[in-house]
């Protein structure tokens, strides 16, 4: 039975992640179940979970040198305790190293792992003694670096090194394994960004405008308190890269839109705000319970004109008339490698076969929405990943099968300052700059030729 101890909570979440859970969902669920942790302990538990997952490559590299048997032969729960302890020793300045060892051994006792306490104590004490002598691989061997230090599977390490070049692949992996900033989209239907920033300031919180998105705010300090306007719907938690997508579709008041893969509705509600709350939007999603999130999110943010329903878009939607939408957003399900900062564990779960399967699914969804676009209308395809197959590969296959569509140069319609985020082909690739603090998103604008 987990108790309200941040290390124990972090340990239970790491074990759940090993069983297949997503880190963000498992952590949220643990916070719901626990006797409430105070904000500092909540912060520590979050740091321990994400830090241990992001740094798993380095932690395992260091532990493997000190362990008398291969790490694969160490009992998984004991290995998670070792990783937790090693993370605190190597990366957490605020925890003195001897305290990290003591806390980890105590945690092993509380978890009925008394028999492993000598083993854990010995390895972690050796780690303290030898931490300055660890022969970390350097980035001159990018595939080794990505595999050993960034915990990428071999196929992914090779593919990134080949595609981006070694140096860029390493920089990209490092950037995608940094903690993500806490970013919100100000709901301009309710409040301006300027007024929201004033509201933050008046409560002693620090926020700064995002670099590109005109309604984004990066919150750098809030002292554990709730943000202003939560129940009033003043903001939506959303990464800046994700905020760019609705701007690229550029909805106009009075238009009829389809958001094909809409849940939980971050972009649906953003589209509504950009359309002055005067759009008609049909929001579809595979899962009925996720489609309901769109409805509740829209109510919170005061968005009108949204209807949400469940539908599997790998099947043609017979209830929709051909050529009936001015614009369609396909924010497709994908491998999620562009949001590793939030789900660092997915990098060792994904296989090359998954990517091929995702690309097939994305192609099916795009094909089933294409006929719904009016002649002259827009279809925006976006994904939070950067594999060739799920980005340009899907677009190439789509265009080959749909001669009535053309890819447009998005650079022609975005503010000049955004252009550095786009390739020469006019497609959004936010990873082109690694210092923006954004997730890695891809988007392409497709236009159906007029009759
Ligand atoms: C990247 S997420 C969408 C995020 C959303 N656009 C937002 O901004 O909040 C992809 C969504 O596609 C949905 N999905 C997966 N397979 C689908 C399918 N075959 N048809 C429709 N939706 C699907 C998933 O349930 C998921 O909610």
UniProtKB/TrEMBL annotation:
Binding-site residues, S-adenosyl-L-methionine: 261-267, 285, 312, 331
Compartments, as annotated in UniProt: Cytoplasm
PANTHER family associated with the record: NOP2 YEAST -RELATED NOL1/NOP2/FMU SUN DOMAIN-CONTAINING (PTHR22807), RIBOSOMAL RNA SMALL SUBUNIT METHYLTRANSFERASE B-RELATED (PTHR22807:SF53)
Function according to Swiss-Prot or TrEMBL: Specifically methylates the cytosine at position 967 (m5C967) of 16S rRNA.
Top class in the EC scheme: transferase
Main subcellular location: cytoplasm
Matches recorded under Pfam families: Methyltr_RsmB-F, NusB, RsmF-B_ferredox
One annotated GO biological process: regulation of DNA-templated transcription
Domain SAM-dependent MTase RsmB/NOP-type: 172-449
Protein name (database record): 16S rRNA (cytosine(967)-C(5))-methyltransferase
Annotated Gene Ontology cellular component terms: cytoplasm
Alphabetical UniProt keywords: Cytoplasm, Methyltransferase, RNA-binding, rRNA processing, S-adenosyl-L-methionine, Transferase
PROSITE patterns: NOL1_NOP2_SUN, SAM_MT_RSMB_NOP
The organism's place on the tree of life at top rank: Bacteria
Family of this protein: Belongs to the class I-like SAM-binding methyltransferase superfamily. RsmB/NOP family.
